[in-house]
Amino acid sequence: xxxxxxxxxxxxxxxxxxxxxxxxxxxxxxxxxxxxxxxxxxxxxxxxxxxxxxxxxxxxxxxxxxxxxxxxxxxxxxxxxxxxxxxxxxxxxxxxxxxxxxxxxxxxxxxxxxxxxxxxxxxxxxxxxxxxxxxxxxxxxxxxxxxxxxxxxxxxxxxxxxxxxxxxxxxxxxxxxxxxxxxxxxxxxxxxxxxxxxxxxxxxxxxxxxxxxxxxxxxxxxxxxxxxxxxxxxxxxxxxxxxxxxxxxxxxxxxxxxxxxxxxxxxxxx
Length: 270
Known about the structure:
Elements: H1 2-6, H2 11-39, H3 49-61, H4 71-103, H5 105-120, H6 127-134, H7 138-162, H8 166-174, H9 179-216, H10 222-230, H11 235-263
Helix pairs in contact: 3-11, 4-5, 4-7, 4-9, 4-10, 5-7, 6-7, 7-9, 9-10, 9-11, 10-11
C-alpha cells in the first residue's frame, strides 16, 4: 500500500491510464448497440458508429436544404460567441470584485454579502426574468452565463487575495506604496493565474447555462440543435453533438491551461 501511495506514473503511463476508461466506455456502447440493433435494425436509441458518422457528415459537410447553411459549423459559431462573451464578462467582473473585496475590508463588508447572495441563487431560476428584461435574443443568454459564473470567480479570487501573506503588503507599505500600487503591483500578478484556474473550473457551469438558454429560446446553437433533434429521437445526431461539445470544452480548457503556463510559469513550480 505504501508503494501505491508513493508511485508516480510517467507521462506516457498517465496518458494511457486516462484513455482506459474512455476505451472501456466505447466498448460497452458498441456491445449494447450491437445487441439492440441485432434485435431491431431500426432502433434509434443506440445507433451504430457508422450511422452517427453519416449523420455527422450531413450536418457538417452538406448544406441544409432549407437554410443553405452547414448546421454543425453554424451552431458551433453561435454557441462559442455566446459562451466566450459570457466567460469574458464574468472573468472581468470576477477579477474586479475579487481584488477589491479581497484587498479592501470596507468594500468587502459592503459588496461581499451581495456577491454571496447572488452565488446562492440558482441561475436557471432567473432565466425567465432575464428573458423578460433582455428579450429572447443573444443578450439574455450572455447575461445568464455572467450571472451564473461571476459570483463563483469573484468569491474564489477574494479568498485568494486574502490568502496572500500579509508580510508582502506590509513591505510594500514600508516602501511608500499606496493602495492602488499594492493592488496593481503585488496582488494582481499573483491573482492572474488563479483567475485562469477559476475560469477553467467554471467552464462546465457556463456550458450548462448556455445549453439551457439555447434549448428554450434560440434558432441556432449546439443546445438548440440537440433539443430540436430530441423531438425526432435522432440519437445519431444528438450523440455526435454531445461529443463535439465535450471536445470543444476540452480544447478550451487546454488552451487556458497553456496560456496560463506560458504567462506565469512560476505559479506551477512545486
